[in-house]
Amino acid sequence: MLDKIELYQGDITRLGVDAIVNAANRSLLGGGGVDGAIHRAAGPELLQECRTLGGCETGSAKITKAYRLPARFVIHAVGPIYSGSPQDPLRLAGCYRTSLRLALENDVASIAFPAISCGVYGYPIADAVQVALDATVEFLATHDAPARVVFALFSHQFFTLYQRALAVREEGRRK
Ligand code: ADP
After folding, report:
1. Cβ(78) to ligand 1 under 6 A?
2. Angle at the Cα of 168 (from 136 to 124), degrees rounded to 5?
3. What are phi and psi of 50, to 5 degrees?
4. Burial, 82: exposed, middle or buried (Cβ in 10 Å; 0-12, 13-18, 19+)?
5. How many CB atoms lie within 10 A of CB 2?
6. Is residue 26 within 6 Å of ligand 1 at its C-beta?
7. 17, 61, 91, 93: which could join 110 in a potential S-S bond, CB 3.0 to 4.6 Å?
8. Does the Cβ of 20 fall within 6 Å of ligand 1?
9. CB-ligand 1 contact for 162 (6 Å cutoff)
10. Per-residue pLDDT tens for 30-69?
11. Which atom of ligand 1 is nearest to the CA of 125?
12. What is the pTM (predicted TM-score) of this model?
């Protein structure tokens, strides 16, 4: 499973994968951070399509076309606003699971995730990376697609953290 996972440091909107995941809010009508970057790069048609979706529950996701982006689809996942409650990891895991299921249903072979909830929503990255990897590895272990999952980290700090977390898992697998 780990061999299907890759890391990328930089802007997720540049990636030529089949689908990129957006860290959206429940309205799905745009926001700051990665959401703003995706809408800017995709063009106004993306917001028009998002208006037809009627929002999205926290912990879930909805799929749209990607318009002017190199990707074919945008999967809009709504992460939890971090509160320290036991619901937080369940909802965050739900974002990854639902996004991967939508990818599978839409013949998406490659998908890229940002660090959902780890910006304005305040989720501690050290915990979020474990939730992201657990949910992804579990999904890949039980489904044939997607073939490639990229974690796109904007900062060098987050990139290094993901690298270490993956290295620990690789090490654990070899033992
Ligand atoms: P949330 O509201 O879910 O916390 P944010 O957009 O505030 O979402 O942040 C999520 C993560 O996305 C943060 O780690 C932020 O640094 C990162 N990010 C912001 N812009 C981009 C981008 N263009 N590509 C990849 N990651 C980005």
Report:
1. no
2. 65
3. -60, -35
4. middle
5. 14
6. no
7. 17
8. no
9. no
10. 899 999 999 999 999 999 999 999 999 999 999 999 999 9
11. 14
12. 0.98
